């Protein structure tokens, strides 16, 4: 029988990757078995080394390891099974606990393709855990594997936030290009299939904005009273990252408002076309009314039908109906022009 892999790209403890960072040096990979020794090493503490451990919550061993081996705060442990909701950023027992959101790594952007990452940041340790791969987290790992050095856990967090801002900016660029195409077709009065697409795009952007918008606010609130172990340089990095993220959120809000205006313009055009169609139908009905009325009266085959004995009765009646129809058409189109 073929065995089934239930590790989901992680080891037996749910660790997907682990890195040890040293000042001015590229990160070194580290396993879960080396974590306890590092945290107990006083020399590593004096040298300002720190670890980044990233776990997969799809592996059942991850949560057991996090609860048993790392002594993490309750706020972080409670966030591991939380559903996608609002962003959180708080201090618990001197450590920074964050719940952030991002677009999934292996999909195109969609309203439902948003995942959550839980973070716990301490002076010597960064722990992140997620259920599914997220785009900004994978980009940060690529930078670490490429040799980028980080002097502190807070600088790592700031780079992650910049990655989030870049992912959001990329989504906005693609969405803006699509909105530009729709707007060009709107100016050319081609509105066949754009309303449904605009609605889906607006819902996606609004949901993403709702999830990510609290993040810069939470960061700024934290930066007003940072923990003692965060130095000024780290505070400056976090503030810059928060400002970049806030700019992306503002651009998202502007794009949502632009989509809303285009939807309103499309609705106005549709209403105008509907009104024009109803007007034509009404005019046709009014023009056909005399013919239908006279045909109904003359088709009753009762005595006293006008012109029944006249040699030119049919021609006279047709002439009267044509004249009446022309007069009604003139009145209808004259009112429309007026």
Automatic annotation (TrEMBL):
The chain crosses the membrane at residues 278-299, 311-333. It comes from the Bacteria. Its main location: membrane. Keywords: Cell inner membrane, Cell membrane, Ion transport, Membrane, Transmembrane, Transmembrane helix, Transport, Zinc. InterPro entries: CorA_cytoplasmic_dom, CorA_TM1_TM2, MgTranspt_CorA/ZnTranspt_ZntB. It is found in: Cell membrane. One of its GO terms (cellular component) is plasma membrane. It is a multi-pass membrane protein. One of its GO terms (molecular function) is magnesium ion binding. The keyword Lipid metabolism does not apply. Belongs to the CorA metal ion transporter (MIT) (TC 1.A.35) family. This is Magnesium transporter CorA. It comes from Lysobacter silvisoli.
């Amino acid at each position: 029988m073929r065995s089934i892999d239930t590790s989901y790209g992680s080891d037996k403890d749910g660790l997907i990757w682990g890195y040890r960072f040293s000042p001015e040096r590229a990160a070194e990979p580290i396993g879960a078995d080396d974590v306890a020794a590092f945290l107990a090493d006083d020399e590593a503490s004096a040298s300002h080394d720190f670890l980044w451990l990233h776990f997969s919550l799809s592996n059942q061993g991850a949560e057991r390891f996090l609860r048993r081996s790392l002594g993490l705060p309750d706020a972080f442990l409670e966030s591991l099974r939380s559903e996608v909701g609002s962003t959180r950023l708080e201090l618990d027992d001197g450590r920074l606990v964050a719940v952030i959101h991002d677009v999934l790594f292996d999909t195109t952007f969609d309203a439902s393709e948003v995942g959550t990452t839980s973070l716990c940041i301490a002076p010597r340790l960064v722990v992140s855990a997620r259920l599914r791969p997220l785009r900004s987290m994978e980009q940060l790992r690529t930078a670490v594997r490429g040799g980028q050095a980080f002097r502190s856990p807070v600088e790592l967090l700031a780079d992650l936030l910049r990655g989030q801002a870049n992912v959001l900016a990329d989504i906005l660029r693609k969405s803006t290009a699509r909105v530009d195409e729709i707007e060009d077709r709107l100016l050319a009065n081609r509105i066949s299939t754009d309303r449904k697409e605009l609605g889906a795009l607006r819902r996606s952007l609004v949901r993403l904005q709702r999830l990510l918008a609290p993040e810069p606010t939470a960061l700024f609130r934290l930066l007003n009273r940072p923990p003692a172990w965060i130095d000024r340089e780290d505070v400056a990095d976090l503030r810059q990252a928060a400002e970049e993220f806030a700019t992306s959120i503002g651009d998202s809000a502007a794009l949502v408002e632009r989509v809303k205006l285009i939807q309103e313009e499309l609705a106005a055009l549709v209403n105008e076309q509907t009104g024009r169609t109803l007007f034509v139908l009404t005019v046709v009905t009014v023009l056909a009314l005399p013919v239908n009325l006279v045909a109904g009266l003359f088709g009753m085959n009762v005595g006293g039908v006008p012109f029944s004995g006249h040699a030119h009765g049919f021609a006279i009646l047709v002439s009267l109906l044509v004249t009446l129809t022309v007069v009604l058409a003139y009145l209808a189109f004259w009112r429309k022009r007026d």
